[in-house]
């Protein structure tokens, strides 16, 4: 794994700088899933942001950036194998589907042993993609996936 | 394994205090703005960052 960028932890997350000088900030936030049994499950969402060093320059694909993000997610599951990880792609710039597809490709590089459950959420005001990832061996997998689907159904009930 | 479920709705229920997906979207927007403006994430209040790794 020598082609990973060095991660610099800080209180709210992790920072790394890639070969072109772009700064990435990765973070986890708490996320509460609801269950059909009137209880909640505390899980975690993952996100990252890029601060471009040169906004005019064309953003090029960088394998090590992808591997560094994947490494962080794999680390999460190494330490939290009985929990889930939630990821959403916003459609603030009509690119949610594109981001979701890219994240799906990254997910495929996690290797065997992971499952991903996705939802496309479309309301009058919102349009985003949401995924929850669990390890296949997670003893709480059924409960977590059920709660993920229940929480979405609760807040975004199907009307069509 | 990869599965997809499609949800389309026009109304939300309001029986619990906060839609966690809306909160997450708002949090992501705030984080994105802060990063682009070079503001430390520690200045963002109300976002529950965790360090599970």
Helix content of chain A: 25-40%
Measured between the Cα atoms of the first and last residue of chain A, the distance is 47 Å
Average pLDDT metric of chain B: 81
- Strand content bin of chain B: 15-25%
Uncertain regions spanning at least 5 consecutive residues of chain B? 9-15
Description:
The complex is a heterodimer of chains A (160) and B (53). Chain A is an alpha+beta fold. Chain A has helices at residues 63-79, 96-108, 141-155; strands at residues 8-10, 13-17, 23-34, 40-51, 85-90, 114-122, 127-135. Chain A has a seven-stranded mixed beta sheet. The longest helix of chain A is centred in the middle third of the chain and has 17 residues, at 63-79. The N and C termini of chain A lie far apart (47 Å). The model of chain A has no long low-confidence stretch (mean pLDDT 90). Chain B is α+β, with helices and mostly antiparallel strands. Chain B is extended and about 40 Å long. Helices cover 34% and strands 17% of the residues of chain B. Chain B has one helix at residues 20-37, and strands at 2-8, 49-50. Classes of the chains: A alpha+beta (160), B alpha+beta (53). Chains A and B meet through strand 3, strand 4, helix 1, strand 5 and strand 6 of A and strand 1, helix 1 and strand 2 of B. Strand 6 of chain A pairs parallel with strand 1 of chain B, so a sheet runs across the interface.
What features would you highlight for this structure?
heterodimer, A: 160 residues, alpha+beta, seven-stranded mixed β-sheet, globular, B: 53 residues, 1 helix
SSE blueprint:
The complex is a heterodimer of chains A (160) and B (53).
Chain A: E1 8-10, E2 13-17, E3 23-34, E4 40-51, H1 63-79, E5 85-90, H2 96-108, E6 114-122, E7 127-135, H3 141-155
Parallel strand pairs in A: 4-5
Antiparallel strand pairs in A: 1-2, 2-3, 3-4, 5-7, 6-7
Chain B: E1 2-8, H1 20-37, E2 49-50
